[in-house]
Design a protein that fits this description.
The protein is an alpha/beta fold. The chain has eleven helices and ten strands. It has one domain: NADP-dependent oxidoreductase domain (TIM Barrel), CATH 3.20.20.100. Strand 6, helix 4 and strand 7 form a beta-alpha-beta unit. Helix 1 crosses helix 9 and helix 3 packs across helix 4. The radius of gyration is 18 Å and the shape is globular.
Length: about 280
């Protein structure tokens, strides 16, 4: 598996397995199958409600802990957030059955962001997580966090797919050595992604599926990606993207698909900000 080196020296797999929207009662089996297929990066979150199932799959896999890269995420915390953040991480670790995670992300850019970040810095120093980062931070919020704190995030996980390519975000992250990670790489099939004529033609040229073309496009942009599937055949297909490369013309054709707009929700929308900020995770 190809890896990237984060700005603190930690090695992270380029492609992993996400469990967003997999029901808890299906997660353990899906993760076990993903691990059998060869995935070593697992991405969950307190908000997904399936950390325990991920932990059970890891425990029963027989895979050495040092071979795995486990990510979970902190939900929005009230001010002052230092103690709340520590408790939230300890709760996630207990559910996962681990003494540390490899990456701990702030899930949303809301709440007591600075208090949360300081607590995450402390957790990294104590070895409760090997790396820390954020998710859903737009360039203004990301740069503010970088400029006004001791530690720059190692990762920013954001919506990224052929219809919302995030070029300005990507450029800022490169400048400040923050690893770009994609969520929603397949756009959940919106805009007819899996039958899109441009992506389909590129796939035919390489003998690959549209899903493989999209994942290869992300990898060639140096973007870590975490496709989700509960189908073992698709899991195997999704990880099989390191034996071909898209040409410059093909990369340009995909670049032309960018709309510059989210297909899901806008983190600048006051109603969405209010909904996310008010939501709380039990435990």
């Amino acid at each position: 598996m190809q890896t990237v080196t984060l700005n603190n020296g930690v090695q992270m797999p380029m492609l992993g397995f996400g469990v967003y929207q997999i029901p808890a009662d299906q997660t353990e089996r899906a993760v076990a199958q993903a691990l059998e297929t060869g995935y070593r990066l697992l991405d969950t979150a307190a908000a997904y409600g399936n950390e325990e199932a991920v932990g059970h799959a890891v425990k029963n896999s027989g895979i050495r802990r040092e071979e795995l890269f486990v990510t979970t995420k902190l939900w929005v915390q009230n001010a002052p957030a230092q103690d709340n953040t520590r408790r939230a991480l300890e709760t996630s670790l207990a559910k996962l059955g681990l003494d540390h995670v490899d990456l701990y992300l702030m899930h949303q850019p809301y709440g007591d962001v600075y208090g949360q970040w300081r607590a995450m810095e402390s957790a990294r120093r104590e070895g409760l997580t090997r790396a820390i980062g954020v998710a859903n931070f737009y360039p203004d919020r990301l740069l503010d966090l970088i400029l006004n704190n001791e530690t720059a995030p190692q990762v920013n996980q954001i919506e990224t797919h052929p219809f919302f390519q995030r070029d300005p975000d990507h450029a800022l992250m490169r400048e400040h050595r923050v690893q770009h990670q994609a969520w929603g790489g397949f756009a959940e099939g919106r805009n007819d992604l899996f039958t899109h004529p441009v992506l389909s033609r590129i796939g035919e040229a390489h003998g690959k599926s549209v899903a493989q073309v999209v994942l290869r496009w992300l990898v060639q942009r140096d973007i870590v990606t975490i496709p989700k599937s509960v189908n073992p055949d698709r899991m195997a297909q999704n990880i099989d993207v390191f034996d071909f490369a898209l040409t410059d013309d093909q990369m340009a054709a995909i670049a032309a698909l960018d709309t510059g707009r989210t297909l899901f929700f806008d983190h600048h929308d006051p109603e969405m900000v209010a909904w996310l900020s008010k939501r709380r995770i039990e435990g």
